Amino acid sequence: MHYYKTKIQYEGTNYAGFQWQKGLQTVQGEFNRAISQLLAGKITTMAASRTDSGVHAMEQVVKVSCENPIDVSSFLHAFNKELSPQVRCIELKPCAGLFRPASEAVSKEYRYFFTNKTQVSKEEGRFIANISNKLNLDAMMVCVQALAGTHDFCNFYSSGSNVKSTVRNISFCELSVINPHEIFSGLELFQIPKVLCSCYQLKIEANGFLKQMIRHLVSALWMVGSGKISTDDFFALLDGAKSKKRLWKIASPNGLFLYRISYS
User: Fold this and answer.
1) In terms of DSSP H, where are the helices of the chain?
2) How far is residue 260's CA from residue 246's CA, in Å, rounded to a whole number?
């Protein structure tokens, strides 16, 4: 067998997440379909992260195991021609057979982008979410700063995944105002309207994330900002016992990007 590490970008709008699912359009399904058109023999793929339906990626890592070797110098161009316009392979190189993209990752960085307007156009909302309620940013910042470190996120994830622990370590968390064009410049998949020159960015890096954890955190922060729960309520949920009742709906996936995966 031959082994390769690839980095891909994708717009997740029309995909039911990354992971292959029978009867559904997924990013992994598209990746496998395209590579099978170019390579004969048995091919398997595994990724570093399972992004949910509608979530995007600026850098997802996928390991390819195949019976026949790949001519790295010429394959990338042909592969991108075969892939759908919503998926791009930006790097391909040989790797060790024992390489495991998920378990060997030191950290994963996600970014959630949102605006705070009474209304936005469909074009503005394609890659950047919006919360129309007036927000108290100072209160939200207090909660964001508290997220750094090791916490039990039992109140900030969705059931349906088999996890041994809900404890995760967040190495970096920051809420800031940015010009999205500085982040998305040169990325053909993600076109931001010229008029949209400012938005909020939640940048969060950790050793791992629970299912829909970031979108839960964003919703909780919006609840704090809207005055629907206090900062003390947020702190109680952060390291407290599992709450019997969820206080929010999960934030929309369109503003969430898998930004970077780091290895030692």
Assistant:
1) 27-38, 72-82, 137-147, 180-184, 213-225, 231-239
2) 30
What stretches of 100-212 show up as alpha helix (H) in DSSP? 137-147, 180-184
Residue with tokens 């969430």, as numbered in its chain: 256
- Distances in whole angstroms, Cα of residue 85 to Cα of each of 9, 75, 237: 11, 17, 41
Q: Which domains does the chain have, with CATH numbers?
A: 2-94 (3.30.70.580), 105-263 (3.30.70.660)
Q: Facing residues of 257 across strands?
A: 56, 111
Rounded CA-CA distance 167/209 in Å is: 9
Tens of pLDDT along the chain (264 residues)?
999 999 999 999 999 999 999 989 999 999 999 999 999 999 999 999 999 999 999 999 999 999 999 999 899 999 999 999 999 999 999 999 999 999 999 999 999 999 999 999 999 999 999 999 999 999 999 999 999 999 999 999 998 777 889 999 999 999 999 999 999 999 999 999 999 999 999 999 999 999 999 999 999 999 999 999 999 999 999 988 888 888 899 999 999 999 999 998
Beta-sheet pairing, 105-115 with 129-130? parallel
The residue type at 242: K
